[in-house]
């Protein structure tokens, strides 16, 4: 049968109805099967004009539709598995619930088409494909090669894009609510002005994924995804699930995600700028060499997290739980760590300072059993609990420790210059401590009593005398 005969048969199917249409559809299916058995390929419809034909439920398996005109063609529930379709004309084409499994699709530009419920899984070489203004609700694009493709103003709600290759693709002004990207390659994928409500990138992988200016992101899932250099910008959403996320050197800017689940996340080298993550779950997370600037982690759970060489600037961590936090060489400046729980934290050589010192709040903080060896702290530590902390060789100059509890704290050779200690509890705190001009210290020692206090007072008398002999100006 020639191509003209095939096109004429399709036109007859389009015009027919009832039993006649059923017989013609059966005839087309038999013709397709004979062609496949004979040549391994389906019908030849290269450059065929099939515009505005009603071809729902047709069997065109393995057909060649390159440069075919499909404007307005109705192909609902059509069987188009393994077709070859290079540069077809597709505007207002209806492919809802059609199957195009393992189709070879190249240079496709689909405009205002309907792919609702269609199965386009395992598309071959669909690189550079453009979907513009298409309805693609519930579409299956699993395992497809869609690198460099573009989706603009499309509705992809409830779609399945599992294990697809989306390297370098663009998704702009789309709906992706409840879409599934599990295991997809999202290297350099950029998603802009799109709704990702309930969207899952679980176990997706790729460097440089960008999610920016999203219209919605509630219940976004990034769990166990491997996304180094992830960039999140101008996002707001609740119920994020990102436990086990691997996003080293990530960049988060103006992100609002209260109670986000980031347990065990790998965020080493990450930058969090003006991010609000109150109540976030970051237990066991890795934040080494990262930076948190501005924003809020109020009430966040950072138990057992690692933040070595982490820099925190002007951020709010009020009431956060950092029990057993590892923060060697941690730097915190002008932040709010009021009532933070740093029990048993390792803050070796940490630098926690404010300018002025009261601009760095640790008021009511719990540092019981913490390691602060060689730490430098100039902060508001009123009512703080340092019971049993190891602060050897530390520096607390200009800090306010009024009402603080330092019972049993190891302050061996710590430096205290202009430290306020009104009402502080210093029971069993032993010299040598290099204290100079510390209001309330002697009164606190008198109240503490005992051999340690007597030894401390004796050391202070000797130290004051040595300083007085050589003092020529203020320190």
- Helicity range of the residues? 10-25%
Report the principal-axis shape: rod-shaped
Order of strands, widest sheet: 2-4-5-6-7-8-9-10-11-12-13-14-15-16-17
How large is the share of residues in beta strands? 5-15%
Q: Describe the sheet with the most strands.
A: 15 strands, parallel
The count of DSSP E runs of length 2 or more, i.e. the number of strands, is: 19
Elements, N to C (H/E): HHEEEEEEEEEEEEEEEEEEEHH
Helix- and strand-based class?
alpha/beta
Q: What value does the average pLDDT take? A: 96
| Distance between the amino and carboxyl termini | 101 Å
Question: Gyration radius, to the nearest Å?
Answer: 34 Å
Note poorly predicted spans. Answer: none
Q: Counting H and I runs of at least 4 residues, what is the number of helices?
A: 4
What is the element layout, followed by pairings?
Blueprint: H1 3-15, H2 18-39, E1 84-86, E2 89-91, E3 104-106, E4 109-111, E5 130-132, E6 150-152, E7 170-172, E8 190-192, E9 210-212, E10 231-236, E11 251-256, E12 271-273, E13 291-293, E14 311-313, E15 331-333, E16 351-353, E17 376-378, E18 414-417, E19 433-436, H3 441-448, H4 451-470
Parallel strand pairs: 1-3, 2-4, 4-5, 5-6, 6-7, 7-8, 8-9, 9-10, 10-11, 11-12, 12-13, 13-14, 14-15, 15-16, 16-17, 18-19
Helix pairs in contact: 1-2, 3-4
Summarize this structure briefly.
This protein is of the alpha/beta class and 475 residues long. It is built from four helices and 19 strands. The strands form three sheets. It has a 15-stranded parallel sheet with strand order 2-4-5-6-7-8-9-10-11-12-13-14-15-16-17, with no helix packed on it. It has a two-stranded parallel sheet with strand order 1-3.
């Amino acid at each position: 049968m020639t191509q003209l005969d095939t096109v004429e048969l399709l036109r007859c199917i389009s015009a027919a109805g009832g039993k006649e249409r059923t017989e013609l559809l059966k005839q087309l299916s038999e013709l397709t099967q004979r062609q496949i058995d004979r040549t391994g390929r389906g019908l030849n419809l290269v450059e065929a004009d099939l515009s505005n034909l009603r071809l729902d439920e047709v069997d065109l398996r393995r057909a060649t539709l390159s440069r075919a005109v499909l404007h307005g063609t109705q192909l609902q529930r059509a069987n188009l598995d393994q077709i070859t379709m290079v540069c077809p004309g597709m505007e207002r084409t209806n492919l809802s619930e059609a199957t195009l499994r393992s189709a070879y699709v190249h240079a496709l530009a689909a405009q205002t088409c309907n792919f609702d419920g269609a199965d386009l899984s395992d598309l071959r070489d669909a690189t550079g494909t453009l979907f513009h203004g298409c309805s693609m609700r519930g579409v299956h694009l699993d395992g497809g090669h869609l690198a460099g493709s573009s989706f603009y103003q499309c509705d992809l709600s409830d779609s399945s894009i599992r294990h697809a290759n989306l390297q370098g693709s663009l998704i702009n002004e789309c709906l992706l609510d409840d879409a599934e990207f599990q295991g997809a390659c999202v290297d350099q994928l950029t998603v802009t002005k799109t709704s990702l409500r309930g969207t899952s990138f679980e176990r997706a992988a790729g460097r440089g994924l960008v999610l920016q200016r999203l219209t919605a992101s509630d219940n976004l899932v990034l769990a166990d995804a491997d996304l180094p250099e992830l960039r999140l910008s101008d996002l707001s959403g609740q119920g994020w699930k990102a436990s086990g996320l691997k996003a080293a050197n990530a960049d988060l800017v103006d992100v609002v995600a209260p109670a986000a689940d980031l347990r065990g996340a790998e965020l080493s080298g990450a930058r969090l700028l003006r991010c609000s993550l109150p109540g976030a779950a970051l237990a066991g997370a890795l934040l080494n060499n990262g930076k948190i600037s501005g924003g809020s982690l109020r009430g966040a759970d950072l138990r057992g997290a690692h933040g070595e060489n982490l820099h925190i600037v002007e951020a709010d961590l009020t009431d956060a739980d950092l029990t057993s936090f590892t923060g060697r060489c941690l730097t915190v400046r002008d932040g709010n760590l009021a009532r933070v729980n740093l029990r048993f934290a390792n803050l070796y050589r940490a630098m926690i300072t404010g300018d002025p010192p009261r601009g760095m709040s640790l008021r009511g903080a719990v540092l019981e059993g913490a390691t602060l060896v060689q730490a430098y702290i100039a902060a508001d530590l009123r009512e703080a609990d340092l019971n049993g902390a190891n602060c050897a060789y530390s520096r607390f100059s200009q800090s306010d420790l009024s009402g603080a509890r330092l019972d049993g704290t190891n302050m061996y050779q710590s430096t205290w210059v202009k430290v306020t200690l009104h009402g502080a509890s210093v029971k069993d705190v032993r010299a040598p401590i290099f204290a100079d001009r510390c209001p309330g210290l002697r009164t606190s020692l008198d109240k503490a009593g005992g051999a340690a206090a007597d030894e401390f007072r004796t050391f202070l008398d000797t130290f004051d005398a040595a300083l007085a002999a050589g003092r020529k100006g203020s320190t």
